[in-house]
Specification:
Length: 102
């Protein structure tokens, strides 16, 4: 089985925070990671290594979540813009009188 660090997979450093995100996902998926000791001018220490299949899965999942979050963020921005427009025009109503309970 081919084991890759994030650097091996991406071709550039991923950073500590992103590495933690991958490690957390590996725990959720009950995927083993393997430690590799590295020493270079940019970093000396241990890095987690994973199978290519796991990293492929992680990045597919990560992209879906990223796109979903981006779409949700855009949806909320549109709702806020609409609310601001209604407030500026004096058209916003907090309650619809037809839905009175009492």
């Amino acid at each position: 089985m081919e084991l890759l660090s994030l650097y091996d997979y991406l071709g550039h450093p991923a950073g500590k925070e992103f590495g933690k995100l991958v490690a957390d996902y590996a725990k959720i998926r009950k995927t083993e990671s393997y430690l590799r000791k590295i020493s270079n001018p940019g970093y000396e220490g241990y890095v987690n290594c994973y199978s290519r299949e796991f990293l492929d899965e992680f990045f597919q999942t990560y992209e879906l979540i990223r796109v979903f979050n981006q779409n949700e963020e855009e949806k909320y921005k549109r709702l806020i813009e609409e609310l601001n427009t209604q407030l500026e025009k004096g058209e916003f109503q907090f309650f619809d009188n037809s839905d009175k309970v009492f």
